[in-house]
Amino acid sequence: MIVVIWTCGICAGRLDYYTGDKIPRNARVCDGTYLRKWDYVDLYAVIGDTFCPEYIDREPTLFEKIKMKFMTVDLKVPNPDYKSGFFRLPDLRGQFIRSNLSK
């Protein structure tokens, strides 16, 4: 069973469990994938940059390693996709989706 997020129309942003063999046309698997904002306008209007971290875990470039050696800086590396035309889907692999309907 996987979790999908609907990408367009009135259902944009809705999460559902899915067990079929083929992902529906207007749905994407919630696996942390980056998508182009202009390709998924309805979905981006709902979730925005909520799941797009400013920093990611990746191997620093040589320049970044040198900078870290001589300066006191955070070891986090800037995410090149952050606010550059892409947004990220939530990564819900292995998660149990539940609601928090507190009043």
Q: State the low-pLDDT regions, or none.
A: 72-78
Query: How much strand content do the residues show?
Result: 15-25%
> What would you call the shape?
globular
The total domain count is 1
What is the C-alpha radius of gyration, as a whole number of Å? 17 Å
Give the strand order, joined by hyphens, for the main sheet. 2-1-3
Tell me about the largest β-sheet.
3 strands, antiparallel
Based on secondary structure, the structural category is alpha+beta
Number of strands: 7
Oligomer: single chain
- Work out the helicity level: 10-25%
Provide the descriptors you would attach to this structure in a database record:
two-stranded antiparallel sheet; 103 residues; 2 helices; 16% helix
Task: Describe this protein's structure.
The protein has 103 residues and is α+β, with helices and mostly antiparallel strands. It has one domain. 16% of the residues lie in helices and 21% in strands. The protein is built from 2 helices and 7 strands; from the N terminus they run ββββαβαββ. A 3-stranded antiparallel sheet has the order 2-1-3, with no helix packed on it. Strands 4-7 form a two-stranded antiparallel sheet. A two-stranded antiparallel sheet has the order 5-6. A hairpin with an 8-residue loop joins strand 1 and strand 2. The two termini are 30 Å apart. About 7% of the residues have low confidence.
